[in-house]
Predict the 3D structure of the following.
Amino acid sequence: MKGKEGMTDWWLTANDIAQLLSYKDKRPANIRAKKEGWPYRNYKARGGKERRYHLANLPEDIQRAYAAGRNITLDQLKAELLSGLKPESPPDPAVKPWEKLHETDRETARLREKVILSWRGSGLTQLDFVAAYSAGHILPDTRSRIGDTLTDSTLSRWFRCYEKSGLPGLAPRYDHRRGGHGASLDPAIKGLIRFHYLNRNRYSLRSVQRKLEEKENVRVNYTMLCRYVRCEISAEIRDYFRRGEKYFNDHYQPYLERDYTQYYSMQVAVADHKTFDFVSRVKRGDEWHIVRLSLTCITDMRSRKILGWHIDEVPSTLTIIRATKMMAEQYGCPEAFLVDNGKDFSSYWFAGDSWNEQHRKAGKRDKGEISSITGDMGTAVQFCTPYRGQSKPIERFFGFLSGEHDKAFKSYTGSNTANRIDELKLYWGSFDGKKKIPIEELPTIEEVRAIFAEFVKWYNTKWRHGGRGMDHKTPDTVFAENRRERRDIPEEYRKYVWTRREVCTVQRNGVEAGGGWYFNEEMGLIVGQKVELRISIDDIGTGYIFDLKTGSYMYDADYNLLKDSGVKEENVRRLNRLRRAQRQRLRKEREDLNEIGKDRKTRLEELRDEEAGQTALKAAGGEDMAADASPGLTLVTPEAGPQKKRKGLFGEVLRGR
C-alpha cells in the first residue's frame, strides 16, 4: 500500500486485501475479484507482473476494514478518497486584452457587468436576486439580450472573474464558430463532470447533474452539461470508460484487413465451437433432457467452405478430432490450423507443443511427452490473439448460421436473453398459466445432425458469398478454383492417427487404461518402460503401442475385457459417469449412518462408564483408590489413508483404496 502526498492513491494487492479481511491466503480475494469484476492494473514486481486494485474501486466492506485499520470512519475515508480523485484546479487561463476581444464579446461583458453591479447595489441575497431576474422583475432589457435564465453558480462565477480580471474577465471564452460546448466552465468543474460521467456504471446526465449538486455543491445548467459531454468528450474516451475495453477494442482500435486472395484452398483451416440458438433433447438413461447442442466446425479460409463438423452435447477435443477426421477423409490435410486459445484446441492431444511455442513468456506448461494429431498430419497450428474473436473469419459465419439455420427451428431461443420472448420459458416448465411444451416436440441430436448436413450441402453448393475475394461465387466454386495438390495421410497409418493418446507404464499384465488392460505377449520384455498408448476414438477393442522416445510403432495390444465389442468412447464415458454417481450415493449413505451413530455408545463403552462412576463413588466415601490403576482400553479409529488416483481411459479420475 502506497500513498502520495496531497492525494489518496492507495493500490492494494490480493495479499493486502486478504490481510484486511483476515483470510488465510489470497485465493478467496482473487476469486472474489474475478467474480465481481474489480478493476485492476498490472505492476512489475519480483520479475513478473502483479495485479493491484485501487481502494476507491473496492467494495464497501474492504474500505470499512481499511478505515478501521487507520482508526477513522468510513465517511472520512470516502471524503479523503474523493478529494484525492478530484483534479487539482489549474490557474485560470489568460484573459484576452480588451482591445483584442471581439465586439460581440465586449458587449456581452458590459451586460454581465451591469448584472453584477445591479446585484451588489440591490441589497438582495444572491438567491433572491437570481429568482427576481429570472422572473423578469429586474433588468428585463438585459435579460432578453444575454439570456432568459440565470443561476446562482453562474452569477458567482461572473463575480469571481470580475474581481480577478475586471471587465475583460466577463467576456465569453468559447469559439464563436463552434458555439459554447462548455468552454466557459471552470476547469475544476469540467474535471468533476468527467469524473462522474466517465464511470463504468454509466450514470445518466441527469444523475451526473444531481451528483454535482449534492456531493460537489456545484450547479451546472443541464443544456450546457449535455453540450459539453457531447462535444468535448470524444466518443472513444466515452466508450472506453463507460462500455469497457472490449467494446473499445472492437469499435475503435485499428486493424489489418485480411487479403483473402493471397491464400489458396486448404492452406489455412479455421476451427471453432458454437452453441446452437435453439433447444434440443437428448436421452440419458430412460429420460429425455433439454439441452442446447454445440457445433464444432472447420472452414477453409480462402473459400469459406465447410470442411468438417461434429455436433455433440459438450464441445471438447474429441469433437475437434471427429470434425478433423471428416475434413481429412473428404479433402485431405490443411497446411495450417487457425484456432483460439481454448484448452481443447491447445491440448497436447490435438496441438502438441504449439501453444507453448507461441506463448512461451506466458505459458506455464511442461513439454508434453505424447505426439499430437496435427503433428501426425503434418499441419501447423496457429493461435489467434486472445480475446479477439474477429481475427477468426469463422465468427462471421456463425452469425450467418444463426440467422439461416437456427431460426428455422420452432425451439429457437436466440443468443441474447434480452431478445428472448417470455413464451420460450414453456420449454422448461409451466409459465403464466400455460402448460409446459411437450419435450417430444423438440428435435433429437440425430435429427439436428441430419438437418445440419443438409444445410452444409446447401451452403457449399448454392450460397453465393459476397465476402472479400468471393465475387458472389459459391464456396465450392472458389474452393475448386484455388485448389492445389491434395495432402493425405498414408492409408496404412490412418488408423493410428484418429486415436486417444496417453502415456502408460508397462506392467506384468500390460498397460492399464479405462479400468481394463491392454496386453501383448512381447510386453514381458519391456516391463517398467513408459510407452504411448493410442486408442481409436470409435473402437476401444484394440490399442496401439508406440515407443515414447522415437515415436515409432511397436505392436498392437488387445483389450482383454471388451475385445471386439465395438464400444464407442461416448458409451464408456457414460458408463464411468454412472459409476461415479453410484459411488457418490454410497458415500452419502455412509456419511448419514456416521451422523446417526456419532452420539450412540457401544455396550463396552457403557460398561466402562458404569465402572468409572462406581470408582468415583468409592473415592467420595473415603476408600483408597488403587495407586497403580491403569487407564482402561480405548478404541482407536484408524485415520483414513490417502486415496490412490487412477486416470481413466478418457480423462476421468477414478479413486479407490
Remarks:
- The chain has five domains: 11-85, 98-170, 187-251, 260-481, 499-595+643-657.
- The two ends are 48 Å apart (CA to CA).
